[in-house]
Design brief:
This protein has twelve helices and 14 strands. The protein has a single domain, classed as TIM Barrel (Alpha-Beta Barrel), CATH 3.20.20. It binds flavin mononucleotide.
Length: 338
């Protein structure tokens, strides 16, 4: 952690965020290296065993969608000690995303605002990347996130990618991509899920839209959760980045991620859990960066947690750090679920 914070991060943070990201990708492309040192990133403890969408995982820390959009680096990322890694979000066709600048760092808050708008190389490219992973020993559960603007495109992505992973996530919640939010309309969501259910053989997660808990704005979103439950979705990811305006972005607005989200994430998880109990699993996502927050999220009713911005701010050791802290908390305070 010290090496990353004292040397790598200051260096990377002198670059534009997307440039820094490309540089980190260069490092991640050396899978042999991560395989060689991967043992140093693990933290094993039976107390950490959990599930995501009903699938057993060695610890509850997952990589959130968006870090590896084209599934090029999952073989390296799975070496970092995650219970599960998520590739994507993948769309059927390649997309350029929004004009730049489209990512901003808010360093003093350990936060980001992104208006990437789903840049990605599309389904064919993701398939060719994932098929390479078949021969690579599996170190964590693999999930792929898909999205799109119409049902045939999404079901096509789902059908083709599902054989290569353990579960799939449907992202209906990008706050800054025109047209990708149509499935927040209840009838459209139900039709999408019914269609995906026709062919699916593996667990399904749905990434829910965020709402501001202090604005009492949850009924519409909970209703989407009810539809997911009725359509036998195994797990809800709660949730995505929160819409925010910023003049530094070419499109003028984006999604906030990182530390400022945590309290809202916690409140959303509590609301979902009090509504649905244990009938559907919840993955807490938004602003989690340490074991204490992870513990709070599990205590609020989550089965797993997901991180993205914390990986950028704290580097590859963050997963081990969260798991160590979580182990200690569970040992001292007891199972957060009881
Ligand atoms: C740069 C960036 C790109 C993202 N891309 C995606 C994406 O493609 N699909 C998705 O479901 N979420 C995406 N997200 C949202 C994250 O998965 C996550 O929900 C959000 O960042 C909150 O978690 P965090 O505070 O741990 O980062 C992205 C977030 C960031 C910061």
């Amino acid at each position: 952690m010290q090496l990353y914070k004292k040397l790598m991060r200051p260096l990377l943070f002198t670059l534009q965020p997307e440039m820094a990201w490309h540089l980190s990708d260069l490092g991640l492309s050396q899978t042999w290296f991560w395989q060689m040192i991967g043992n140093n990133f693990q933290h094993h403890n039976e107390l950490l065993e959990a599930t995501v969408a009903g699938i057993p995982i060695k610890n509850p820390v997952g990589l959130a969608a968006g870090y590896d959009k084209n599934c090029k680096f999952l073989s390296s990322l799975q070496e970092l000690g995650f219970g599960y890694v998520m590739g994507g979000t993948i769309t059927k066709d390649a997309r350029p995303g929004n004009p730049k600048p489209r990512v901003i760092r808010l360093k003093n808050q350990s936060a980001l605002i992104n208006a990437l708008g789903f840049p990605g190389d599309g389904l064919e490219r993701a398939l060719s990347e994932i098929s390479k992973m078949v021969s690579i020993p599996k170190k964590s559960v693999r999930i792929m996130s898909v999205s799109g603007t119409d049902i045939p495109d999404i079901t096509e992505c789902h059908r083709q990618l599902e054989p290569f992973c353990d579960a799939m996530e449907l992202n209906i919640s990008s706050p800054n991509t025109e047209g990708l939010r149509i499935f927040q309309e209840p009838t459209k969501l139900r039709s999408l899920l019914a269609e995906v259910n026709q062919s699916r053989t593996k667990p399904l997660l749905v990434k829910m839209p965020p709402y501001k808990s202090d604005e009492g704005d949850h009924e519409k979103t909970l209703n989407l959760g009810r539809i997911c439950l009725e359509e036998k979705v195994e797990s809800l990811t709660v949730s995505n980045t929160i819409p925010i305006a910023h003049d530094g972005l070419a499109v003028g607005h984006g999604g906030l991620s990182g530390n400022p989200l945590f309290e809202n994430t916690l409140a959303m998880v509590k609301t979902y859990h009090s509504e649905f109990g244990d009938s559907i699993e919840i993955n807490a996502c938004g602003g989690i960066s340490n074991g204490y927050q992870a513990y709070e999220a599990l205590k609020a009713g989550a089965s797993s947690i997901q991180i993205l911005t914390a990986l950028i701010y704290q580097g590859p050791r963050v997963v081990q750090k969260i798991n160590k802290e979580l182990s200690e908390l569970i040992t001292n305070k007891g199972n957060p679920k009881i």
